[in-house]
């Protein structure tokens, strides 16, 4: 099995190996991600769950998604409180990481080709979205799985206005 990327919590009690490179990177501005990260967004590389391995057993907190109504499972270290990953009732074969828990967060670039920006409807005013990235007001797919057409701006987009 390919090793992919490695990461861990603050205390080192829970680690992980991704087994591969990410399928894509989601940059999410929803209120859940803002609260979960204590920041204005979450950068979340998404991996196949099948190749992912936790080293140690994380605790899990489950809550319903306001967007889909389906359960979101937050995997975290009970000792130091670090949130490591998310799994989803809606996509049981995928796992999303909190990018800052990677041993080398810079090893996963966020580019227009591999990323999407979601929940711009909840982004802080003044949030800057780079040119060329698929951007969505909410999810990139409807609850039934139907894809949503993204907005793709040629120049930088500031939530609330465009700039050249």
Q: What can you tell me about this protein's structure?
A:
The chain is mostly beta strands and 164 residues long. Helices cover 4% and strands 32% of the residues. Strands 6-7-8-9-4-3-10 form a seven-stranded mixed β-sheet. The longest helix is centred in the first third of the chain and has 7 residues, at 31-37. The protein is globular. The N and C termini lie far apart (46 Å). The model has no long low-confidence stretch (mean pLDDT 92).
Q: How do the strands and helices of this protein lay out in sequence?
A:
Elements lengths: L5 E3 L6 E3 L6 E5 L2 H7 L4 E7 L4 E3 L3 E6 L6 E6 L6 E6 L5 E4 L17 E4 L9 E2 L27 E2 L2 E2 L2
Parallel strand pairs: 3-10
Antiparallel strand pairs: 1-2, 2-5, 3-4, 4-9, 6-7, 7-8, 8-9, 11-12, 12-13
Overall form = globular
Beta strand count: 13
Q: Treating each run of at least 4 consecutive H or I residues as one helix, how many helices?
A: 1
Major sheet summary line: 7 strands, mixed
In short:
The protein has 164 residues and is mainly beta. Helix content is 4%, strand content 32%.
Provide keyphrases for this structure.
single chain, 164 residues, mainly beta, three-stranded antiparallel β-sheet, 4% helix
